[in-house]
Amino acid sequence: MKSVLFTLLPFLLGVFYLIHPFAPSVQVSVFKTSGVTLETKKPSPITGADQISAYLPYLKGKRIGMVVNQTSIIGNKPSVDSLVSLGVNIVKIFGPEHGFRGNASNGTKVDDSVDAKTGIPVISLYGKNKKPSQEHLADVDLMIFDIQDVGCRFYTYINTLNHVMEACAEHGKELMILDRPNPNGFIVDGPILENHLHSGIGMHRIPITHGCTIAEFAQMINGEGWDLPKNKTCKLRIIKVANYTHDTPYTLPVMPSPNLNTQQSILLYPSTCWFEGTIISQGRGTYMPFTVLGAPALKGIYSFSFRPVSLKGMSETPLHQDTDCYGLDLRNYDTSVFRKTRQLNLQWLMELYKAYPDKARFFDASQSKQIGNFDFRSGTENLRKQIIAGKTEKEIRQSWEPGLSQYKQMRKKYLLYP
């Protein structure tokens, strides 16, 4: 019976997907030519996970380990739940930062557990283990990685990917990647990480926005040999995103982490997250993180204010807790600017440093209580020194070369999408 089910499922699921209310919508572009209005219809991206018929037969008879979190969905349902209901033998779940269900605060250690809904063991990769052990993989035939990334060096899921690839290469396990669009995939910008600033928020010699999907980044890890066993690579099987280019706008259906809770925050994140390691709050401890910037000392300089408080599952001890912060409100900032310029915003960093009264404290990581200091987040000591010295944006951007251009050229080898 199971054999018949697996034989028929790809066809049945294909039909189901076409008539299902969660089938992909269509993007419509309207333009005028010779006074006549024309419409062109572009199908929306279809994630790798949603293309069930492309990979379900390959899972037949295999013991599956899944690296997933709350963004791992098929339609509107968690992919683990969906695949279990289809008879897939998932023997282990591996959870990254924020946990399998995505409800742990940033930087919080996550322990191993058992998933209450499915009864499947959950191994944390953001606690005592950074990568699966030989014991963890002993009863796994195939690993699946299905996590939504947002395209930034300091967003830790690419580190999780690297650790999982390292373990798979060491122990001869194949890794299937169910690829997803990168919402910031149109920007490749920022200083290249300097070797001495290698850390948990910067493992790779890449700019702040790397311009890759998870599958493209996996190919880059293999090709560049980053943190892999000597003379070994990870065997990859990739289910590509359909109807996708790096310029395709993509609104995430599920927030990728507790403090990226809106599309606005996701698009601002590359340009506001490097305020961590400064005295400036990025709105952690509010329901508008990464869309506001401020500090108590800026009272009288800016009229807009917000007050960080302890929010369980988001930020339990935020910077400037229970104190009014004054600064910039970016909630209505036109993020289409990023698509036009293909650049991060440096002006906010330059402006707030210039406005801050006690400049000696601005980059004081011990005062900011953040994870890592500014140099680790920006990936270079130069940016901090350049801001202090009053360098122009043009001078700062020039200092990112030739590293940035070299990265862009290297990146081309691993792209799956135009």
Number of strands: 14
Structural class: alpha/beta
Highest CATH level, the class of the largest domain = Alpha Beta
What's the end-to-end separation, in Å?
42 Å
Strand neighbour order, sheet with most strands: 7-8-6-3-9-10-11
The tally of helices reads 15
- Give the CA-based shape: globular
CATH architect. name of the largest domain: 3-Layer(aba) Sandwich
Please provide the ordered H/E string of secondary-structure elements: HEEHEEEHEEEHEHEHEHEEEHHHHHHHH
| Oligomeric state of this protein | single chain
Low-confidence stretches: 14-34, 368-372
- Supply the number of structural domains: 2
- CATH superfamily heading of the largest domain: Uncharacterised protein PF07075, DUF1343
Please summarize the sheet with the most strands: 7 strands, mixed
Helical proportion, percent range: 25-40%
Provide the gyration radius in Å.
22 Å
Q: pLDDT average, as an integer?
A: 89
Strand content: 15-25%
CATH topology of the largest domain: Rossmann fold
Describe the structure.
This protein is an alpha/beta fold and 418 residues long. It folds into two domains: 188 residues, Uncharacterised protein PF07075, DUF1343 (Rossmann fold); 118 residues, no CATH class. 29% of the residues lie in helices and 15% in strands. The chain contains 15 helices and 14 strands. A seven-stranded mixed beta sheet has the order 7-8-6-3-9-10-11, with helices on both faces. A three-stranded antiparallel beta sheet has the order 12-14-13, with no helix packed on it. Helix 5 crosses helix 6. The protein is globular and about 65 Å long. It starts with a helix and ends in a 7-residue tail after the last helix. About 6% of the residues have low confidence.
